[in-house]
Structures are given as structure tokens and as C-alpha cells.
Automatic annotation (TrEMBL):
Protein name: HTH cro/C1-type domain-containing protein
Family: Belongs to the short-chain fatty acyl-CoA assimilation regulator (ScfR) family.
InterPro entries: Cro/C1-type_HTH, IrrE_HExxH, Lambda_DNA-bd_dom_sf, Rad_response_metalloprotease
The HTH cro/C1-type domain, residue ranges: 13-67
Matching Pfam families: HTH_3, Peptidase_M78
Cited SUPFAM superfamilies: lambda repressor-like DNA-binding domains (SSF47413)
Organism: Thermus scotoductus
Recorded superkingdom: Bacteria
CDD domains given in the database record: HTH_XRE
GO molecular function (one): DNA binding
């Protein structure tokens, strides 16, 4: 199967697995094969397919090509930079998902270079005038959050949808799916060629994802001196504890400024579990998050926060007439295809294919999907459908603003 397979190949497979701390059973479970097949690979009686070999390389954090040489195994740097240690006590599923993100960043950086396109944000724009060096003083979180809101002209109300907002600021956001027991909500990585990138675990409510995005945005603004950091519950170094604490506080004030929260609560005429849900809906954050912000600002007692957090959100949503979907955990995806990527990535890849600088199979390889998905979802002609709203608004909104021309020239 592999023309340059050497005698050390099976031994290297075993060595890489053992150094990663994984058992044959764990590897088999992640790859969806039998433990017996893993054993046959490591004995040299069978050879893994190209697909399985790529998965093994990601799982073990090994450069794939080093399996085929007589030299020692060569390990990738990504996860080691993120965790400051080998593996970071991750589950095999988490390792595979994070490695796939890091590999995509490598490949996409190469793609942008070949296209002659600018990389993503690599440092903080000078016009932001942020403090020099890393900032970890939680007492400055509120002031800094309000300053960023002012610099981006966001006012005091709900922030824009952050997936799109960060993409517009040239921070590449990548969606992945990790089990809840992984304890990982997101990650920030300063890729040496590509620039700033954020990983978001979509196995959480949309409100929780919003907090993760704001949290990682704080790392990009104030902690870019770090190569990367993973937002997780356990295994943090003392330095990581400090930067995580600041990022949490900054994200809280950035998403829901204290003054705006107090004013909005006053408009609602008093606080209750129902009005708390309305506040969460207003600021586009999770119900649990808004309870903590209300307690942060001294608007509810700790006991109220704990009691209100026990109520069923579906019942509260029905009481006040807000959509429940944004507060519930999304269904488990079978597989994340093009949904992983932000608009900037999909637009760049689509343009390259349409202008014949990239083949369909090349686009499929870059985006980790099959060619059928590229043709069906990224390149297919736009279908047409009857638009009742257009008919309704034609008489009401078919006008030209004063001082504007009736004919638009493009190009």
C-alpha cells in the first residue's frame, strides 16, 4: 500500500501509541475499528489505510511522514504549545479533534500564501492602544472591556453575533465537537504563519458558545504573547490560571456591561427568574451566565442565583414567550462538515475553485470533506423559490434614499 514502507513502521506505530499514553482499546474506539486490527498493525501483519494512518498521526501528535523514515519519530508542536506538556491529560477524542484543527490551520496558511492573500490577525492593531504586555489584573477587566466596546463602536447594548464579528476582525474561528467530559470549551492559538485562531466546542448552548468566543477574544487582545491556551477546567499552570481568570472577567463585562444590565433590569420592573431569562435573551447570552452577572453586580443574592438556576428553562421560556431553542443544548451532530469554517474561509476556497486555481478534490482535502460535499454545498447553483416577503415589501420599501442615485454602477 505504501511504497516506502520500512521494517520499523510497525514498531513506530506501537512506540507512538505508548508515548501518547493510549491503549489499543482506546485507539480502536476512536477510529471505529477492532482492537485486534490495531494489534495487527503494530505487529506488521496488516497495514493501516491512508485514512487511518492520518488519524493515527493526529491522535499521537506525530508527523505522518516520520512513520516512513529510519529516523526517530518527529512530533508536531501544536498541542504541546497549547498545553505546555504532552497530551494535557486529554481523551483520545479531544486529541483527534484539536489536532485536526491545528492541521487545518497549517494547510490553510499554505493555501493563503499560494493565493497571495493576507494572513489573519497576528498582532493587535495599533489604533486599539492596549496596555503593553499581558494583562491579568481582574480589577482592570471592566474598564478594558468598556474601552474595547467603545473602540469598536459597540455601545452598551448586546454585542453583534460573535462568530461573524471575530471573522470580520480577522480572527479565524473554527468549530469542533468535544464531549462534555473533556472539560474543554475553547482554545486560542497564535499560529506562526496564519495568525490568531479560536477553537469553539459546539457541544454547548449558543449562549455558552458566545461566552467562549468573548473569552478567547480576550486572550487575542491581552495574552497574544502566549503561543496558545486551552479554556478548560483542570490542569492549568499558575500563569494560565491568572490569564483565564482575567479572560473570564473581561468576557463577562464585554458581553453584559454592568450599567446596561442595571438599566435593562430597571426597565423590566424588578427581577425574577422570568425577567432574568428576558435579560439573557436581550444580551444573547445563556440564562446561567446572566444569573452570575446579576450576582456580580449585586442585583441578586447568591441564594437567589442558586435557586433560580434550578428552574427548567423550557418552562420559563413558555412563560415569557421567548424562543427556547437558543437556550437548549443543540443536538449531537453526526459530523461537522463545512459548518466548521467561518465565512472568510468558505468564500476564499470557493473563489479559488471557481477561478480554477484549486481543484474540487484539493478543496475537499483542505476542508476535510469529500468532493461531493464541495460540489453539493459550496459550488452548487443557487436555487430559486417564491419569496412572499419580497412581494409584501415591494410597495412599502421600494424607494431610493434622498441624495442617492437610482442606478448603481459596480466594478
Amino acid at each position: 500500500m505504501f511504497a516506502n514502507l520500512n521494517r520499523s513502521f510497525p514498531q513506530k506505530l506501537r512506540e507512538a501509541r505508548e508515548k501518547s499514553g493510549l491503549t489499543q482499546e482506546q485507539v480502536a474506539q476512536v477510529l471505529g475499528v477492532s482492537q485486534e486490527l490495531i494489534a495487527l498493525w503494530e505487529k506488521g501483519d496488516r497495514v493501516p489505510s491512508s485514512l487511518h494512518l492520518g488519524q493515527l498521526a493526529r491522535l499521537y501528535g506525530v508527523k505522518r511522514e516520520s512513520f516512513f523514515t529510519d529516523k526517530p519519530l518527529e512530533y508536531t508542536k501544536g498541542l504541546r504549545l497549547l498545553f505546555r506538556e504532552e497530551g494535557g491529560n486529554l481523551s483520545p477524542e479531544a486529541i483527534l479533534e484539536l489536532q485536526e484543527w491545528l492541521e487545518f490551520l497549517d494547510d490553510y496558511a499554505d493555501f493563503l500564501r499560494e493565493e497571495g492573500e493576507e494572513p489573519y490577525l497576528k498582532g493587535i492593531p495599533k489604533d486599539l492602544k492596549l496596555p503593553k504586555g499581558p494583562l491579568t489584573d481582574v480589577r482592570q477587566a471592566s474598564t478594558q472591556a468598556l474601552q474595547i466596546r467603545e473602540l469598536y463602536k459597540l455601545g452598551q447594548d448586546a454585542v453583534p453575533e460573535l462568530y461573524t464579528f471575530l471573522d470580520e476582525q480577522r480572527i479565524l474561528v473554527y468549530k469542533g465537537y468535544l464531549p462534555a467530559e473533556s472539560g474543554i470549551w475553547g482554545a486560542f492559538y497564535r499560529h506562526p504563519q496564519l495568525g490568531f485562531s479560536v477553537f469553539v466546542n459546539v457541544n454547548s448552548t449558543l449562549g455558552r458558545q458566545t461566552f467562549t468566543l468573548a473569552h478567547e477574544f480576550a486572550h487575542a487582545l491581552y495574552h497574544y504573547h502566549l503561543a496558545g491556551i486551552v479554556c478548560r477546567r483542570d490542569g492549568l499552570s499558575p500563569e494560565e490560571v491568572e490569564v483565564e481568570r482575567f479572560a473570564n472577567a473581561w468576557a463577562a463585562h464585554f458581553l453584559v456591561p454592568g450599567k446596561a444590565l442595571r438599566e435593562q433590569a430597571k426597565r423590566l420592573g424588578g427581577l425574577s427568574p422570568e425577567t432574568a431569562l428576558l435579560l439573557a435573551n436581550h444580551f444573547r447570552v445563556s440564562y446561567t451566565f446572566i444569573l452570575f452577572r446579576l450576582h456580580n453586580e449585586g442585583l441578586i443574592e447568591r441564594e437567589e442565583r442558586e435557586e433560580w438556576s434550578k428552574y427548567r428553562l423550557e418552562d420559563l421560556a413558555l412563560r415569557v414567550g421567548v424562543p427556547y431553542e437558543i437556550f437548549r443544548l443543540p443536538p449531537v451532530p453526526q459530523y461537522l462538515d463545512l459548518e466548521r469554517y467561518p465565512p472568510s474561509v468558505l468564500l476564499n476556497v470557493r473563489k479559488a475553485v471557481e477561478e480554477e486555481r484549486l481543484s474540487v478534490s484539493g478543496a475537499a482535502g483542505l476542508l476535510r470533506v469529500d468532493s461531493t460535499t464541495i460540489e453539493r454545498e459550496l459550488l452548487a447553483d443557487l436555487g430559486e423559490e417564491e419569496n412572499q416577503e419580497a412581494e409584501e415589501l415591494r410597495e412599502e420599501l421600494d424607494f431610493v434614499s434622498p441624495g442617492r442615485k437610482t442606478h448603481v454602477r459596480r466594478g
